[in-house]
Amino acid sequence: MKTKLRHWKHLLVCLTAILPLFCPISLPANPIVQVSFTPETIKQGDVLLITVKTGPEIHGISGTLFDKTIHFYRNPGQDAYTALAGIDLNTDPKRYNLSLSLEDKSSGIIKKDVEIQVVSAHFRTQQLTLPKEKVDLDEETLKRVNLEKEEIDKIWDISTAGPLWDGNFIKPVEGVIDDNFGFRRVINGEPRSPHTGIDIDAPEGTPVYAANQGRVVFTGDQFFSGKGLVIDHGLGLLTMYFHLSEILVTAGEDVRKGQVIARVGKTGRATGPHLHWGIRLNGARVNPASMLGLSLE
Ligand SMILES: [Zn+2]
Question: Of the candidates 38, 54, 48, which has an alpha carbon nearest to the alpha carbon of residue 110?
């Protein structure tokens, strides 16, 4: 019944498109394609690993999810393609369509739609008390904060062709992870923006390692995040490191996985020394802890 409905929808789209020859052909049960997801239950804020197993006749895959392009890369020596997709922490918990386009050597483009269900992560609310001057900003500070936001927002649009990472991601600091990702923060009684990373507690001066191979695309000292840096890992995947006491790399520099790039501090708006570690994936704010559980080898 569901399949029939989908066909009707297609037919309607085709009729309205005037050019019926260009309508995609829907193949709901194509035997040459097997699509799998890690994790199987997809929550708000997850990094989603999509694996598409194909026959040798497929020589390329592209996809879209949440109206954004999903970049697939071929697994060496296998008839399989992999992509990482970001489920932003504010994604509505409901069903979404992953549209795949497979390039077949003989029959051209084959379209395949796969449904995914995003469930709620049940983010908690966190009450924080901070000095008034760190929360209620004067005009000059507000101006600075807005300029800094503009500057860093440009970084989230970076999408280098091809992956720069090398295998699995590693935890950037030895220390206890406070999995406070997505917490709805209420500061001095006022609701504020959610916490878009995780905090790792460690003494001031503790080495911070690059979570994977990539290129430094930002270093700076911002009002809220203090001394910080961002690494581009390719395909729209960026890791960020904030509240540092010292930055040991410069923008444009290539870094290896595990290289010491900075030291833990409490610069910016921080209540004590810790690393704020965040990840953007094609603009989506995702939980770095979910990246640590993925096998990219
Ligand atoms: Zn934080």
Answer: 54
